[in-house]
Amino acid sequence: MNLSIVNLASIAIFLSVFLFPSFNSTYWLKWRASLIPSTKFGADLIVKNGVIFTSDPSFPFANSMAIRDGRILRIGNYSSLQDLSGYGTKELNLEGKVVVPGFIDSHVHLISAGLQMARVQLKGVNWKDEVVRRVKEAVLNAKRGSWILGGGWNNDLWGGELPMASWIDEVTPDNPVWLTRMDGHMGLANSVALKLAGVTNLTKDPNGGKIVQTADGDCLHDHAEPTGLLIDAAMELILSWIPEVSVDERREAMLRASSFALTRGVTTVVDVGRYFPGSSVEHSWQDFSDVYQWADSSGKMKIRVCLFFPMGTWSRLHPYFDDPHNYGLQVLEFESLFNMTISSDMSGLQVAIHAIGDKANDLILDMYESVALKNGKRDRRFRIEHAQHLAPGTADRFGQQGIVASVQPDHLLDDADAAIRKLGVDRAQKGSYLFRSLLSSNALLAFGSDWPVTSTYPLRAIRTAMNRIPPGWDTAWIPSEHLSLNDALIAHTISAAWACFLENEIGSLSTGKLADFVILSSDSWDEFATGGSTSVNATYVGGIQAYP
């Protein structure tokens, strides 16, 4: 997450609906009513001879499990499952491989990620010429006049210089271009796009946004001109001219992203949607009806998805789901945020607020405390998304107040150098990505990726949380904040499930739960724990192999 917002980040409250693969039931409520399989009948599948990490503290490891009707019938030693083997039961010999519960990515933008996969990929590019080359390649494969879209660039990787339209104008004379930064807070337009949108040196900055301009009398201009870079709300000046993504494109994007998630062992995602400040709240509802309901009713869902809708539209959910949770809508005034939060909490909704910097986190913790005191005790599971930079003592408050810290370990890899520049060495070295401190305070950690800001990659996120070594560094960033393998796995499985009230259905390999699991390449727990190059061999959703 970009450190250009160090204090008060975007604030969000959404409501959720859950959709699932391979079945015809539309809403999670129906699934919660399903019965635990009876052992009176045999298993469909017995998985045996492995090292199964369950994420269940009452029974941490097993070597075999029996599955029927998509749920775990029994888990333990192979000998204890023999009575469940009958006519038609298949057996899968793991041959000593490590198995973990299906990973839950607690924060993604699924359709946006799928769309980005088919566009100009600039993630990880660390020099200007490569940006130009990739844009030029896209132009050669595009129709004249069509939009060239892409993103993922990070100017910190090439020394910090912000890109300009002049970088790409020569290779894009007939095509408008829009390239978003990795954090989604700014984008680069070429001169064709600026002209199409009518953005000139006379265009005023919109509220909450900025049109970056050249300095007066620089080497290229005798007066200030737009550089092509637009920040936050100013992005809408260009975005409003980009043709709406078609229904078919959005459907393909969701399926593309789902398939990719399975390759990474992700079986459930929390999708916060395509909504961003300044955009239409209708995007979330259009995606629900055009994409998710279509995929659900036609049996095309590949992974489990928890959908979130902007708070301002929460009443539309009642015909579908009578136990909503929430996440989303940016709020600029604290009083408005407080009123929205207290009303949402009073209605029994789960509130999640995005806060990156120390001031923002303290402000939200203060507000959560006030709301809880006013509305009374209940199981509310307030969340703070990101929680990246905390003031001294703030980590303890998460535990004292029972707040969920929904964090993205791989942001640590991109933020390290920028954090030191923007926060100063002392603050960056004492208050950044305090995973161990949060756990020690009895806060709950839920791991996610913020895909497509970073790719969904739980195995890498787990290693990042364990090692904390950014690119180009020889030592760890705040080594005292290392997590153990066990703690990191828990954060991407059962804790992530608990963070959205799904712990009774997913998140651990326990009797009665949905049989979502991942077979890893490691031949032993020691090999996995010592940091060998582990990859995903296979992903199962509801006891059915979904990848490869």
Automatic annotation (TrEMBL):
Superkingdom: Eukaryota
MF GO annotations: hydrolase activity, acting on carbon-nitrogen (but not peptide) bonds
Domain Amidohydrolase: 91-526
Pfam families: Amidohydro_3 (PF07969)
Protein name per its UniProtKB record: Amidohydrolase 3 domain-containing protein
Taxonomy of the source species: Eukaryota, Viridiplantae, Streptophyta, Embryophyta, Tracheophyta
